[in-house]
Amino acid sequence: MADFAKLSEAMGNLEEDEVISILRGVMADGGSEAPQAMEACQKGMDIVGTNFESGDYFVSDLIFAGDLMKQAVEILKDALITGDAGGTKTQMIICTVKDDLHDIGKNIVKAMLEAGGFDVIDLGIDVPPEKIIDEVKKTGVRIVALAGVLTLAIESMKMTVEALKAAGLRDSVKVIIGGAPVTEGYCKIVGADAWTINPQIAVQTCKSWAAEA
Ligand code: B12
Fold first, then answer.
1. Where along the sequence do coiled-coil regions lie (predicted)?
2. Within this chain, do residues 132 and 202 fall inside the same structural domain, yes or no?
3. What tens digit of pLDDT does each residue of 106-120 get?
């Protein structure tokens, strides 16, 4: 078994060579421990966040951490992303909400949804409610996934759900929210239908909605 505590620590210390070497080790057997490795990398990102809050790390370190996390996803992705992409694809929207530029988690969820058989329209980052409403009207999608990592993303998610209501679309569109700060309590505040920080659960939830439609 790989040393996941060591992986989190190396990630938190931004030790690129060590991180890559542990991840290559994880993939040596085809990646049976890839999900645990992904979790360990996220714990490492929490360490980065804590060091940033305490003033030991700077924005440049966040940028470096983001690049390192992208490399990690690249190495692990074939083992993480498995699915049944055949058959008719249900179209859906994903984006990072207004004022939030973080997209690493969103991109992981998007890739897993695609592997799970969805045709995912990715509207990108910092996406205002109006753009999402326009796309829902244009495409008629019935599932919208909203990502956000900043605490203030919760407010943008709430504004998006309110905008769906105001446009008369709320009853025909299911909304799932996710990202590090998202909780059951925030889900209620936002008025979303579901929340999770686990991409596999996101895929299952969207699949159950697609089956209902
Ligand atoms: C890398 C990083 C950056 C990079 C992002 C690069 C990129 N392309 O995304 C850059 C340098 C751009 C950045 C900028 C900033 N950042 Co930053 N950043 C981080 C860091 C270290 C890692 C984020 C990450 O990628 N995590 C790994 C991914 C895989 O995890 P995840 O996003 O949670 O996703 C998983 C799940 O949540 C879920 N999921 C994700 N999305 C979705 C969506 C749906 C629908 C579902 C169902 C599930 C789901 O699945 C994913 C896989 O498991 C975090 C610290 C942390 N603990 O996360 C800080 C952090 C998020 N940043 C923070 C801050 C303050 C900033 C800045 C304001 C810094 C500054 N002064 O400029 C700016 C804000 C820019 C903006 N307006 O958005 C704070 C936020 C504080 C807060 N409470 O709001 C954090 C928490 C650091 C900290 N502790 O202070 N950042």
1. none
2. yes
3. 999 999 999 889 999
Residues 70, 34 within the same domain:
yes
Q: Note the pLDDT tens digit of each residue in 67-98.
A: 999 999 999 988 988 766 566 789 999 999 99
17 and 36 assigned to the same domain: yes
Burial of 27 (0-12, 13-18, 19+ CB in 10 A): middle
Which sign, positive or negative, has the C-alpha torsion 66, 4, 76, 39?
A: negative
Q: What is the CATH number of the domain that holds 194?
A: 3.40.50.280
Residue 171 C-alpha to ligand 1 middle, in angstroms? Answer: 30
- Whole-number Å distance, alpha carbon 157 to ligand 1 midpoint, is 15
Number of compact structural domains in the chain: 2
Tell me which residues have their CB closer than 6 angstroms to ligand 1.
42, 45-46, 48-49, 52-53, 59, 62-63, 65-66, 69, 99-106, 108-109, 145-147, 149-151, 176-180, 196-197, 199, 202
Could you report the per-residue pLDDT of 133-156, keeping only the tens digit for each? 999 999 999 999 999 999 999 999
Q: Report the distance separating Cα 144 and Cα 150, nearest Å.
A: 19
